Amino acid sequence: xxxxxxxxxxxxxxxxxxxxxxxxxxxxxxxxxxxxxxxxxxxxxxxxxxxxxxxxxxxxxxxxxxxxxxxxxxxxxxxxxxxxxxxxxxxxxxxxxxxxxxxxxxxxxxxxxxxxxxxxxxxxxxxxxxxxxxxxxxxxxxxxxxxxxxxxxxxxxxxxxxxxxxxxxxxxxxxxxxxxxxxxxxxxxxxxxxxxxxxxxxxxxxxxxxxxxxxxxxxxxxxxxxxxxxxxxxxxxxxxxxxxxxxxxxxxxxxxxxxxxxxxxxxxxxxxxxxxxxxxxxxxxxxxxxxxxxxxxxxxxxxxxxxxxxxxxxxxxxxxxxxxxxxxxxxxxxxxxxxxxxxxxxxxxxxxxxxxxxxxxxxxxxxxxxxxxxxxxxxxxxxxxxxxxxxxxxxxxxxxxxxxxxxxxxxxxxxxxxxxxxxx
Length: 424
Ligand SMILES: Cc1ncc(COP(=O)(O)O)c(C=O)c1O
Ligand SMILES: [Zn+2]
Hints:
Blueprint lengths: L3 E6 L5 E2 L14 E5 L1 H7 L2 H6 L28 E3 L1 H7 L3 E6 L10 H14 L4 E5 L3 H13 L2 E7 L4 H8 L4 E5 L3 H15 L2 E2 L5 H7 L1 H10 L7 E5 L5 H14 L9 E7 L4 H8 L24 H11 L3 E4 L1 H15 L5 H15 L8 E6 L7 H4 L14 H10 L3 H11 L1
Parallel strand pairs: 5-13, 6-7, 6-9, 7-8, 10-11, 10-13, 11-12
Antiparallel strand pairs: 1-2, 1-3, 4-5
Helix pairs in contact: 3-13, 4-5, 4-8, 5-6, 9-10, 11-12, 13-14
The structure holds pyridoxal-5'-phosphate and zinc ion.
The site of zinc ion has 8 residues, from loops.
């Protein structure tokens, strides 16, 4: 028996069956899944979760499917890395990286939400699976559709980084580059979903898709030993992830797996596209749309679908909003790479840069624990972001003499020689 009872409007509470509906007919509010928590409580203990394979379906009773999972058998349960060198650099004791830059199969947090949306697309009988995307979602939808044998259409702004375009193209979907920004792409896809009846992960399947993001919250608590940190810093674009991390944590309390206060959840954006941060600063409940201009293209969404849910979640947990310039984002990408050996894309740079600001401002105190959500991989955007700034390889001939000459010219000869003799 499934634990999924149906859908409910987040704003007015109107109830709906678990179909491909994306807004409330009464008030146009977003719809969310409703579960039988009494049943979940009986079925999901810490021991049961821990006995299951390390993927996002460990929490399947809290995910909105009615049959068996169809995909995502290696998605989720990404590393929670204790970042000691980074923490020491920033002057805090306990800092973790939730590393979705190595999520399977397409190296971003989107593999969580797509695992659920794709499974639900099949359950609801869609033959065509698609999305409106800033790049990572298109990669994930294309990959999961290939594995499932679904016809696939992904819609993206026409100016994305090459790695993001190729990262979809390899799976051979129909890729539509729209001359416009993400908000234009999203508007078009809403019309297509309505006209053609296709299943769009983040439009008419959004209520299911969004639930996949809760698994980031579940895993953070489990990987910390069934406890909450003091702070979580999350990037915000369309606003799916941040409120669902909080929803996931609340559900863990609801079913009795974790107790204690929810962490303060902070929203990180790029200064060139920060509608949610502005709304938090100005005390607005609904963010005002902005026109994005930032290197952080994956989070360049000027009119976030779930913006007000982000505002509400940040406020209710005692968090803040923090925006970082492109220069700060690039600096944070470099810092994470040099201290922890993790290469993230600008979305992760914005999240870490925001964390650095919050530590400097004293919002995150040195003795408090913080989890930084790194949601995407730097290899996809390397050329366009850090490509021009990095050291080129030195080039030499094939002889040892030439290498030693290089060492001498770089002032490294003595150190290298003593290092070599030390090891022999
Ligand atoms: C790498 C990355 N991080 C974060 C986000 C933000 O996602 P959300 O729409 O859940 O706010 C996105 C996508 O839009 C993304 O691609
Ligand atoms: Zn409603």
